[in-house]
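Table 4 source record.
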Amino acid sequence: MPVDRGTDPAAWAGELYADPDAAAVTQVTGGLPSSSLSAPGVVADMLDSLVLEPGHRVWDIGTGQGWTAALAAWRAGAGLVVSTEIDEGLAAFARGRLAAAGIDAVVLVANGTCGVAPGGPFDRVHVTYAVETLPFEWIEAVRPGGRIVYPWGRLGHVALTVAADGRSATGWVQGLGQFMADRSGPVPASADFDGYAGVRGTGSPGTERIVERDLAPLGDDWDLRFAVRVAVPDAVVITGRDEDGTSAWVHDGCSSWAALSARGDGTAVLHQGGPRCVGDEILTAWSDWEARGRPTPYDYGITVTRFDQWVWLGNPDGVRWPVGGLSPARR
């Protein structure tokens, strides 16, 4: 239900600040959310991961309402934060709010994914929207030893430290969090049943078999969901529960799909179609995660070079997966 700050400021504040683990939508475009205030708990976690100190020069990418730019400027100091925002209206709004609060931070209209803000080199880069692959220009904009904190894909945020030679950055996953995607990138595959139905179409499944698994962890276990996201990054997993148990629907946003339908006895029927057996890919990733001792998201990290990007488990030289499931030569 819409709330008007002008007529009901208490209800407006209650909606905006009701839950430290919930985001608040602040802009709707074409009937869909296009900007938000991130969950306060996640913002605090990300800024803590940034290890921001007084005197650091900061590039805040994705200004939105100006909240994280304000927090960064409060910590780093006046005149040390440059924030870029692709949306002219949001940038103007943020400038006004920052000025009204007496905060000295620069807000520029720019696509942070495709260019570098003036004022570098920076000590810290803080990103407020999700990217699958990190633009190497962000690493080039940071001093050796500096940090980049960004939301990675659909789930989780990462803190990278730039190497002494400036040719790479590596670091650990810091926590879970779902962010709006980069506006200038490809449209993310729809993570609802309509998205699945669009890929599924009306064709007959290519394979059908019984799966000896209770699918509840696919909906409830975020450690498992993160591991699946690492191993099969383009797979969208939707779950639902009824009297027979948890069922799952999977698609790759393009042409392959799978449906795992609970049978009421702790097993499921797997139907899948398309050029890939994406249901089997999910189940294989699940089994591999169990075989590795059920690692948590905090056991994973990411390394980025000019040409390669990969997720690793345990240490940068351990088992790895190309970011996005793409060939490392892609970037």
